[in-house]
Amino acid sequence: MDLPFLTLDVFTDHTFGGNPLGVFPDATPLPSDLMQRIAREMNLSETVFLGPPESGGDARVRIFTPGKEVPFAGHPTVGSAIYVASTMEHSPAEGTLTVVLEENVGHIPVDVRFRDGRPLSARFTTAVLPEHRPSPVPDADLARLVGLEASDLHPSLRPEMVSCGLPFYVIPIASLGAIRRAALDAPLWQRLVAPLWADHVYLICPEAEGPGVDLHVRMFAPAVGVPEDPATGSAAAALGGYLSKVDGCEAGSLHWTLEQGLEIKRPSLLQVEADRSGGATSAVRVGGSAVFVSRGFMAVPD
Predict the structure, then answer these.
(1) At 24, is the secondary structure helix, strand, or coil?
(2) Which residues, at least 6 apart from 54, have a Cβ–Cβ distance to it below 8 Å?
(3) For 123-168, what is each residue's pLDDT tens digit?
(4) Which domains does the chain possess?
(5) What is d(CA 158, CA 178) in angstroms, rounded to the nearest whole number?
(6) Which of 46, 102, 103, 259 is the catalytic position?
(7) Known catalytic residue at 94
(8) In this structure, which of 57, 78, 130, 215 has its CB flanked by the most CB atoms within 10 Å?
(9) Backbone angles phi, psi at 12, to 5 degrees
(10) Distance separating alpha carbons of residues 119 and 111, to the nearest angstrom
(11) pLDDT category, 26, cuts 50, 70, 90?
(12) How many angstroms separate the Cα of 30 from the Cα of each of 8, 47, 48, 185?
């Protein structure tokens, strides 16, 4: 059979930037093992399979990396919402339309912004609030894990494991020069991090290259077949929880702009927001732009 698919570049406003996403519409009846084989064939950070809603949302979404299915991911959420919004009969010419995606982590509302009748960007609210766990690995080992010295770690921001639906090991780096030099030591990762709750390594640095950008970030996920990700919305959500906790204000809204993917020639921009109420994080949102890139068919054996 021939399965139609399309691709988008997510967390960018131009082709060949951001994080490529494969989208297979009307595909959720496919067996899970076939979805996994298709995702491996696409060989993108994630491929999504869409189907009709099952529990009151606008679309059922299943997300696969080349190595496994994941319950939630950021650039698939943004890209899927923009695609679904583009197919709706009564989408606005200007303004915002809310799309509710049914992912394995739960219902995720996504606000899609339209201009001249086209969906340009989307912002989602995480289905779960941040969960924090302390770093179990000594700082010196974390530095070696990414090919750096202990002095390259940030002097005041502490490593921590955080999740808003997908766990990440957040490792703060002191300088832009150091985070650019970082390279994951795969055997050391296998020994120190692979068995942990958070096995995705997320480096953050409060210095950036672009104007108006707050942090430079990189993400390594060998556990799911992604050596380095161009743009990681689920990690950005975890970072929103991390930075909200660091800020510690009693109430208010916080905002950060992140750059990612520069080291692998896929420049990406992500917008992160966190609300605080009663001294705790009460909501996390992640958004960005996306562009349609290609359409085609995959020949899949019956």
Answers:
(1) strand
(2) 60, 102
(3) 999 999 999 999 999 999 999 999 999 999 999 999 999 999 999 9
(4) 2-127+289-299 (3.10.310.10), 131-285 (3.10.310.10)
(5) 16
(6) 46
(7) no
(8) 78
(9) -155, 160
(10) 10
(11) confident
(12) 22, 14, 12, 37
